[in-house]
User: What shape does this take?
Amino acid sequence: MKNVKLTSWLAGAALAIILTANAQPAKISVAVDQPGHKVSPMLCGIFFEDINLSADGGIYPELVRNRSFEDSDQPDYWKLTNADVGNSSMAIDSSRPLNPSNLHCLRVNAEGGFTLENDGYWGMNIVKGDGYAFKAAAREENFNDPLTVKIISSTGTVLAHGEVSGLTGRWHYHTLNLVASDSDPKAHLEISGAGGGVLFLDMVSLMPDKTWKNHGLRVDLSESLDALHSSFMRFPGGNWIEGNDLAHMYHWKSTIGDIDVRAPLWNTWGYNTTQGLGFYEYLQLCEDLNAEPVFAINCGMALNNQDVPLSRMGQWVQDALDAIEYANGPTNSVWGSLRAQAGHPAPFHLKYMEIGNENGGPDYAQRWALLVNAIRAKYPAIKLIATSSLQDGSHPLNPKPDIVDEHYYESAESLMRRADQYDDYDRNGPKIFVGEYAVTQNAGEGNLRAAIGEAAFMTGMERNSDVVTMASYAPLFVNLNHRAWNPDLINFNSSGWYGIPGYYVQEMFGNNRGDVTLPTTVETTSVPQPTPAGEIGVGTWNTAAEFKEVKVTAPDGKLLFASSFSKNADGWKLLGDGAQWSVRDGALRQTAQQTFIRALAGDRSWTDYTLALKARKISGREGFLILFHINDDDDHVWWNIGGWNNTQDALEYGSGSVDGKPDRIETGRWYDIKIELKGNHVKCWLDGQLMHDIQRPRPDVRCLYASATRDDASGDVIVKVVNAAPFPVETEIALGGIQEISSPALAIVLTSDSPHDENSIDHPAKVSPKAETFDVSGPDFRRTFPGNSFTVLRMKPGE
Ligand code: AHR
Assistant: This one.
């Protein structure tokens, strides 16, 4: 075990690492009398992306799913039931649209009694005594009967009902105020009628009267955000703003005004978006959260690498300028007047705009320049954020960005290692916005260990917040019934929510930020690393390939596992979105051209073994992935043969690649593959040729990570301490430059019995912070930090 001494000096910019031979007790020294740079007031924020049904089916509380019948050419999420003698049917109709943005409606050919049913998003949360506004546009052809509208519980009880009558041949809106007689989180809506003729329905809506601050959003989910005390909110994406292709890019102008003229748009995260949570609602939410809005726009580049031609970028430039006018312009300006009409005459004071998402390369640089030059000419005070390339981390240089957005999705250990990353950043370069980060490997659905990794990284960002001025975890929300990304900070269903342990890390930082950094020295040892162990696997990335004759042997030659794929893939876990696995001619074959597809087998306790198999590329851009030492379905540990568009061969551990060399895989040729694993030693052969002979890079993880700040209003010294070790660490804490501290002091501790512990809807606070006071005799004291814990200490210097 080595002993590591870390010192962060006044500006928090210089970091000295001194290795000493002997282990010593841990010590954290804080120079309270030598305050450093200010803590960025924008440091702790949130990133709201419409992903995982965060908006529709989430914070935007419309209870009816597919209210505008735009989701597909079928009446998705609607069910029609006939009464005994009825023979009615329903279909999507586009013969006479409600308006030019809402081209489809529901047509019911009525022949006797019928009931239309909508369950919303896995049940509607109805609360006794609360009011619900029903609204629908309707017209008829020879259908003169009234419609009965009911909210029904999951056990069949009518919770509220009303009647709609007076339908005519023209579109009219009909409304009802329904008050619930009882509660049920899984209720549904029914609309029933009888007789003959044709009924047309559109924009069928059921909205709760109670919304957060009366601004139209779901109360509990808004409160879950409010509790974080975030200083900014980036919105609305992410990949969502890029869109799958040119036709599905996010354009804010389609998201304002009357709800029924907002054009729904297919969301890359697998659902149709109503745009009910539009630009205005996002701005209002930011204001209500007291968070600076950070609006991200599409930069003319889509996820499928389609770019808007430069000659057509004029519209994108104009949209960016108009967005700023909409948010900030006077009420007599074109776009400012629309904001006023929507209910907010005062400006929203938008100060930050992000150009694109995860874009890079020359195409991005050209579009960045176009947009930035135009925005800076008209609105020089707006801070413009550039994205950094996913390929090489670079960002546009000309014009110089005010801020650059970096994203990290990694293991807990690699985020811990990043705690020092910003110590060396150029203090004259652009400021850094870590716009997306999270522990995504070995994280379960958000466990304690992941939260510990994130907290360690955050101590580094706080210590360097002269450079890292903004940071936000991602993603924020997930509807538990539609998880397109894992993990997510806030998990919810129709009626409740819980925060993963990482949520509490965000809350603890957000509520205990402090105003000025205090230089902090941490003397600690590194965490002993376990011997690498885990399952085997095969995988593909944008490629079809097949695998056969898989064999795993122990060092003594004993056969641990063999797969002949004679009939099926028994014993294998077949993973990956959109994967197409099959077994054919004694081989396991994967034919979908998707990323991160893998099949796993074996035992997580295996340490030393030899994996041998044959692999053949069928088609696609890359070669194949051979996985080993896998402990989690989301592990990224593999030998990538023919990766990087079939140009390289390398070992990949999480986001880092090791021992890369040029290589190319031929389509249609069977390759012999062998990997030998002994402790940290990895050897890889391709067709008998030794390609890699390396020591597996081991994460150099320290036991303790710490940062310290002072809160100007209270005078409190705030020390944040992460113990990343699995065992308790007794630590001497020395607050230099003060004589006394008032007793008792406050400790807020986040920990749990196991690093794998998670919260759930039934146990939402299993891993949550506990506050305790403790007596301190003076500025030097001892405290034991539990294994896998994050602690905030608040201490008041005495007179
Ligand atoms: O946060 C989830 C996704 O991760 C975002 O949409 C994208 O920006 C990133 O790749």
About this structure: Residues 1-23 have pLDDT under 50 and may be disordered. DSSP finds ten helices and 51 strands in the chain. Residues 361-378 form the longest helix (18 residues). Residues 49, 51, 237-239, 357-358, 407, 436, 474-475, 485 surround alpha-L-arabinofuranose (CB under 6 Å).
